[in-house]
Amino acid sequence: MRPMKVRESQIATSQRADTYTYMTSVKFAIESVLGKKAWYELKETESVKPWRKWGLKLITAYELALGSTVTVADEEWREDVAENLRSAKERLPKSETIEDVVACLCATLIRQSFLQIGFLPRYQGRDGPVLKSENWKLDVYRSVQYVQSEEQKASVFLSEQQRAIGHEQQFELKYQHRKSKSKLSFQKWCEELAKENLSAENESSVGEAKIEVH
For the packed helices 24-34 and 48-69, what is the interaxial angle rounded to 10 degrees? Predict the structure, then answer.
């Protein structure tokens, strides 16, 4: 009887003591972008199929986000990005193991991270530059700017405020802002309110200190 051949992927899978904690940081990252369904399908699976599925979804989401969000860019940059993402879409369905899927995603997004800030350095077979800022100024072909409109700044403020104080308290503040009929924006109104509260707290502390002295 011929001995059964065991694939390396089967050996690797059998050596995983806990599939729940395996690649946890990658699972969390994918869930944060694509939602809880990704987590439930990936959290304890030993099959490569769900990983291929969600890896392709992740690359597709990235592709759609770039197309919808980056409104001004040169054609050469768009071609470089398209080629990088197209290559990932071709390799992912051929991945034989979970490790192959994650390696493909890592390689694709490493390249993409540098394309996103200017261009992708190419030092294959050569010594790379010293890690000093002057050697990593990647604006030879294009410059990148991240700017915010007033509306976007307001969105950031609302998001951070809600995380800090919760939805209900933020709703109450919005109600008080409307009730006050202030001409200030909600953000400016909140900033002024915070200053007033801080000033009142300081005055109260000074008053308490004087009482203690007497």
Answer: 50
